[in-house]
Design a protein that fits this description.
homodimer; alpha+beta; 6-stranded mixed sheet; 27% strand; 13 helices
């Protein structure tokens, strides 16, 4: 070999050595100028103040941060209802005999689990995305109807270049496909639970991913399928929700939007025909043609001569909430106005104002004042495994947007306008035969968004005994049914324990928060 | 300078040149041996078959892929209901006078939009995650109750090393905080809508992120807050759903699980007292103490001497579905068994079997056979902007898991056991006064999961006219009410158009799919 040849070989060896060294130097140089002069060990830069101790805020600090109306609305093992100066509390278990309690608890747990299964609860734990995954995918919001097909948006693969790209998608409650027109050698598993794309063409991979479809198999109402997307050792998961939309139940207000086609008045009466008639007459002074539905569980039926009254009789003393549920079950208009049989309409009883509020907001119902009392109260729920804690406070949550003078709350008086379809969905529990009020709003928790406009008022007939002796006697009988006996109180507490899966309740006045 | 010095300088220049060249060669060399010999232009390797044309499958192929029972269940602009040999179709607009149609459409659109707003629809478009983001975050499943606080799981930052790390989280329907006990110099905006973390300590950043909390401000029932997480120019978004759970409505079956405490029978009668009495007597042969609720809109009330019958009267001819809605509104047990007043119980009418099916599955209701006919039908919905298309097919979707002989379907006969609370939630529309059946199941779409167990049977009383002349006369009057007049048909079609936001329907026999 010539001397130039030897020199070339030597240069080649130097090249390899230098390239190696150059790469190492290059990598460190790219971090920062400062890093070049540091030690080669990858130690994280310390805080200028020294190392920070990692600790959490103590519980008293947390309680101050996340308290509303004196209630700590933060996840905890078991909620509690405490009796203080301002608040009374009831433990619902006290409504049962100690000896019955274990069996009651077991039955309640069994019923609760059955309920949960039908509601698709508990929901699966949150799905967490890992950082630096080479995938694009839909994080939230992909929904498909049972048996339907949808394209999955946003699927991407941005991994490093490779001679061949292999991406696999896997579903469990449905099958996968792609709208791309390509041979089976590139995509396998079309119409199956696992779709595998295998190509060396990056543009083709992108195109296929842009047009992947999901077809839900089987008829179910609410499930969440976790679809996974993998390539080499990287895996991303995203949810596809299988849900059947609830079909609308709309009411035609008619071309003239007459109040008669929009609103039905509903009431229930028992042993108070004289008060009912006064109430009806007062309605007719202001609203001569609105339909009034009357549910009556008195001993003898009435003969009401009013062509716009619909009259229903029930078994004697069947009950207060049974009658309320009956009355609302007969309404054929978009809205229903509830009134008690001992109210009376006056010139402040403006149904049109309440209609306007419901038409223009997302509220399900809006109450007015009875005399001057709006009877507003808030309900706050803490969920726990052994039963939830229900906190009741007077007052409201916040003003109602667009309606100064109106507020958002949880409960109102028995003078309210409601979306018929929403009110029927919750209903009045016919097991509540005598005294009951807040139970309806508790049953409506999570279902009914409630407002209150205290400026819309209805009168309350005098509570003084009737002059007429027959009527006075009837009123006396009636009042015996209004007495909240101990047995009835125990019954209602037990009902809250079992029906609503509650542990206890705490009632008090509004605290500043 | 010496010649060795010059040579050294020349070597240094060569070094820099070679290192540069070596780095370039090294990068290409790391791809594959093959790549070293290729051109230096970064052209993606082509498929051995040549470049693939990017095109989608033609529509006929797509239709074959995503068709169920002859219906193409794939997103489209406007669905259609076609009349073929096997299927009839109805366009619901035909029920209106042409001159009224524009006003009707406008009213329906206004009512539909109001309904959508109250349901939180339409849902926001899917949130898409970008690839290679240096963040970890919860993709799906983080829920918070209104006014409550929750920790946000899975927040991570895995970006490149830096002297200072700055990560900003931003919410809009709630405020952010962290449970980490650290000074305000590190975290700013605690309890505000924007939280900024600024530290050079990577472990501290990790700790703070692990304990970020979200507090929902304001009382609302269903909203989705898009929370963003950013650092330098990288942004990730994830959803936090503000939702109030629906409070449970459970029924205590009692320590002995007596059928009387689990099931109430409900029926409606009109001008058929003789048939009603035969039906009641047949119930008592097999179930002497089950409560039977009877809603009656005949002219004259009956006197039913049965201490377990609850009897309700209604305005004369108020109607079929009004009566059904009334009857179910009075039920106080977990389950309600619906029967028509002209059925009769026999030894195949095993209520216990139906109870077992509902206790062990997620079905909301399960029907049996009347005589030998199960009257099963499926409903498939295609949603479109101008109104949905409803397809009706006989048969079922799939077998019911755990119950051979039972199936999942959409509609059944008027002999079914249902969860009272679920049935009341849907209800029977009192606007349907005369002939109606499938309307109930259509109203239940998306709300009721329906099954059918044809082996549980009830008898149907003979349709031959009564021998007794008075009864025969009554039956004649009754049958006039059962005639589906043209006016009533038009009324029901218009009701589907407006109430259910439907465009058309298509009914046919089951196709193979």
């Amino acid at each position: 070999m010539t001397s130039a040849g030897y020199r070339f070989l030597w240069l080649l060896k130097m090249l390899i050595l230098i390239v190696g060294l150059g790469v190492v130097l290059f990598m460190f140089g790219s971090v920062s100028l400062q890093a070049e002069f540091r030690s080669l060990k990858p130690e994280p830069p310390g805080s200028p103040l020294g190392v920070q101790v990692l600790k959490l805020l103590p519980e008293e600090r947390l309680r101050n941060l996340f308290t509303y109306d004196g209630i700590w609305l933060f996840p905890k093992n078991q909620c509690k209802c405490e009796t203080t100066e301002e608040q009374r509390s009831y433990n619902f278990q006290d409504a049962y005999d100690q000896s019955d309690l274990p069996a009651v608890k077991a039955r309640r747990q069994a019923e609760f689990e059955h309920f949960q299964r039908r509601e698709g609860l508990p929901r699966p734990p949150p799905l967490l995305a890992q950082p630096n995954l080479p995938f694009g995918y839909p994080v939230h919001g992909v929904e498909v109807m049972p048996l339907h097909t949808i394209p999955i948006p946003g699927l991407q693969f941005e991994g490093p270049d490779a001679p061949v790209y292999e991406v696999t998608l896997t579903a469990s409650l449905g099958t996968l496909n792609t709208l791309a027109d390509i041979p089976d050698s590139v995509v396998q598993g079309r119409g199956q639970k696992q779709l595998t794309i295998s190509t060396s063409d990056r543009k083709l991979l992108k195109f296929i991913l842009q047009h992947v479809t999901y077809t839900s198999s089987g008829y179910q109402h609410h499930m969440v399928d976790m679809v996974s997307m993998e390539s080499k050792s990287s895996v991303a998961k995203f949810p596809v929700t299988i849900r059947h939309p609830v079909i609308p139940r709309l009411y035609d207000p008619g071309p003239e939007r007459k109040l008669r086609d929009l609103v039905t008045i509903a009431t229930k009466t028992f042993l108070r025909p004289h008060k009912l008639m006064i109430m009806l007459q007062s309605i007719r002074e202001y609203y001569p043609d609105l339909t009034v539905i009357v549910a009556d569980d008195s001993k003898k039926p009435l003969d009401i001569k009013d062509s716009h009254v619909e009259y229903y009789t029930m078994p004697f003393r069947k009950g207060w909430f049974a009658g309320r549920n009956l009355a609302i079950s007969q309404v054929t208009t978009k809205y229903v106005l509830w009134v008690d049989d001992d109210f009376f309409f006056n010139d402040k009883t403006k149904i049109e104002v309440l209609v306007d509020v419901l038409e223009k907001t997302e509220l399900d119902m809006v109450g007015g004042s009875v005399q001057r009392n709006a009877f507003q109260f808030k309900l706050l729920l803490e969920q726990s495994e052994n039963g939830d804690c229900l906190h009741k406070r007077t007052g409201s949550f916040q003003p109602l947007e667009g309606f100064p003078g109106c507020v958002v709350t949880s409960g109102v008086a028995n003078f309210f306008l409601a979306h018929t379809e929403r009110l029927q969905r919750v209903g009045f529990d016919p097991r509540l035969q005598r005294v009951a009020h807040s139970e309806f709003f508790i049953d409506g928790l999570g279902s009914l968004l409630v407002g209150s406009c205290p400026d819309v008022m209805i009168g309350h007939q005098s509570r003084s005994p009737a002059v007429d002796s027959d009527l006075a006697a009837l009123e006396k009988i009636y009042s015996t049914y209004r007495t909240n006996t101990n047995a009835q109180i125990q019954f209602k507490l037990a009902l809250h324990y079992f029906k609503n899966h509650l542990e206890c309740t705490q009632e008090g006045t509004q605290k500043k928060h």
